[in-house]
Amino acid sequence: MSATHYIRVEGVNMDPFILDTQDLSTIRGGGLLLLEAIQDLCDKYNGQSRPYLEPISTGASAGLFRFTGDTDAAKTLVEEIREWLNGHAYFQHATILVDSVPASAEGFVADRERLMARIRRRQLASPGLAVPTLVDAGTNGDTPAVCQIDGIRPAQGKPRKIKGEQRVLSRATEVRRGHGVDQKGIDERRVNFYQNLLRRDLEGQGNNGADQDKPPLSERINDERFARHFQDIAGSASFGPLNDKMAVLYLDGNGFTGIQRKQISAAIKTAIKKGQDKDQAAIKAQKDFDAEVKRTRAEFLKWLLEEAVEEANKRRWRVSPHDARQAKEQDEDEDERAPTGRLRLETLMWGGDEFMLVLPAWEGWAVAHQFLTQSAKWKIGNDPLHHALGLVFCGYKAPIHRVVALARELADLAKEDGMRGRKCSSLAYQVLESFDHLGNGAEDHLTALTLPGAETRHLILDVDGVEALSKHLPGLKAPDGLPQRQLKRMVRACFIARDLAQAGQTWKDLEFDGKATLEGLLHTLSDKAKTGSAAWFQGLYHLDQLWAYVAPEAEAEQASTQGDAA
């Protein structure tokens, strides 16, 4: 007897597939393969030569589908999908789980939750990474036994030149790395990841930005080349202290699950009132929610790519000949000019209500600010789409898995901010001058920084705080602005000596034209705390930490001007 069944396909244990190396192309390839697994499944089961799987919700590494058929057909289909994934040349190296449940009288929402629980149970019974097949693994002194990129899986095959060194890779790393290079290179066999995303999620809305005379953005990026290594993103001699530093920006929806449930619940109530199919209404609400979230993400990506490819921004976003890696540091399939002209941009994660970017350090703050500004207009129904942002500034050699974990932890702190919580978007950040582990974690680190009489929440920025810093810090950094020596003196008094009286005396003696601006900025950062109070002085932490990262072009221009004058 034909009935409705829900099938979920989800990539799990993703860190061992994406973040187990420091190699950017391998990380990129792993992330893109998980995205493609869901899309390829949709294309494969499109109802033409195989059963039809109706997509209900698709995200970064998961897909929820509806299938109509008898119980045996549903079981057969689930097994067929598992066999396809396990036998796929690429997807077999990831842990991708499949399960199903029949539709019940409890309705779509209960069935969806029950299906997710089945997947979680399967995940608990699965190994941390997909166990590789041992074929031609290194067994003699000339061939390493372990992959020289991921350091975990057996090495297989012949050595290849990667960043100037001969290395032997595991099959899983070879597949991921090869896919990561092809996906964003000039390769006719591949369709550019960004092109696909813009065309799919902004379909019918145009993606050519403000200039209607230009071809759509999805066409203009057709021949772009992207960074192969984190060094390509971070290496520049044009930004002084920010040279060789990058920004890892993690963005996560704040309270999206509640909004989704609200939309689905409202759709079900309306359907019942009108005598309509409540499951059909719930599924439509789910689809509409997903489509709107994807549209907003693509809208932001469009802005980001527009900025990156704009000729006027070439100095900021492209690898110059002066900054390019030397030939001895390149890969075997790169020519000597290969790094030159590449865009300094990478997406480590994309999909669902979260994504992660790697940017040059001198662009990290501006991109985070733009996202907060742009997302302030996003709504589903009457519910604003708030976000929590975690931003880490670090050197390009910092262990990426730790940096990613820190960015996520910071975003979670922004979500849990006691005063603001889920009522607005907020940003938590960390500057790592040289990579040091924060010990017990970001929360303990911020708690230790909190001044007696102040609150940790003042170390987390809301949209007003980000706006105020972007507006006023460039002027305070000007030659006739806030003397940095005086700023450092107050910061040491507050956060090292814990002597607010000393900081207060330094403030009293401080004289410069922008003192009133600085006082107002500290009021904004402390939620209007009294001048000279612990909460008010705590705002100095943001100035000290972000001095080099907010509007770094002003410093570069000043240095250039001073050099010309000399």
TrEMBL record:
Basic and acidic residues bias: start-end ranges: 320-329
Highest taxon, organism lineage: Bacteria
InterPro entries assigned: Rev_trsase/Diguanyl_cyclase
Span list, region Disordered: 315-340
Record-given protein name: Uncharacterized protein
Organism: Roseospirillum parvum
